[in-house]
């Protein structure tokens, strides 16, 4: 599936995902800025945040329980569309997905 990463200044980078990857892994593999992903996908760092734009939110789904708690712990809030990208597993249904990197991260 093709995944596009959008930086706060509007810079866009698009990559093909491999088999059974997460959005985080695709971004880290290509050194996408603002994606430190310090814990390597263990749901322990909250430094892999992305914003899922409205048209994709239903298909991507909301955060899981622990994921939502981590986002709230890190931000003091749960912004709509905010996800930890290591918890977004890419399927064919997500081909064309766009995610935005938060200004404050990394
Ligand atoms: Fe650490 Fe996602 S990479 S929580």
Cofactors and ligands: FE2/S2 (inorganic) cluster
Mean pLDDT value: 97
- Main beta sheet: 3 strands, mixed
Any low-confidence stretches, pLDDT <50, length ≥5? none
Number of domain units: 1
Number of strands: 5
And the CATH topology? Ubiquitin-like (UB roll)
Question: Could you say which overall geometry the principal axes of the C-alpha atoms support?
Answer: globular
Strand order of the largest sheet: 2-1-5
Pfam families: Fer2
Protein name: 2Fe-2S iron-sulfur cluster-binding protein
Family: Belongs to the adrenodoxin/putidaredoxin family.
Domain 2Fe-2S ferredoxin-type: 1-105
Descriptive notes:
The protein has about 110 residues and is α+β, with helices and mostly antiparallel strands. It is built from 3 helices and 5 strands. It has helices at about 25-30, 55-60, 65-75; strands at about 1-5, 10-15, 50, 80-85, 100. The N and C termini lie far apart (about 25 Å). The structure holds FE2/S2 (inorganic) cluster (FES). FE2/S2 (inorganic) cluster binds near residues 37, 43, 46 and 84. It comes from Paracraurococcus lichenis. Its cofactor is [2Fe-2S] cluster.
């Amino acid at each position: 599936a093709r995944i596009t990463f959008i930086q706060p200044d509007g810079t866009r980078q698009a990559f093909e995902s491999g088999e059974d990857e997460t959005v985080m892994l695709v971004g880290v593999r290509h050194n996408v800025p603002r994606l430190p992903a310090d814990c390597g996908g263990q749901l322990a760092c909250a430094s892999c945040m992305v914003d899922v734009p409205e048209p994709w939110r239903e298909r991507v789904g909301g955060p899981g329980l622990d994921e939502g708690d981590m986002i709230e712990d890190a931000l003091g809030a749960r912004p709509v569309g905010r996800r930890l990208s290591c918890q977004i597993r890419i399927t064919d249904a997500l081909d064309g997905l766009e995610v935005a990197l938060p200004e404050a991260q990394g």
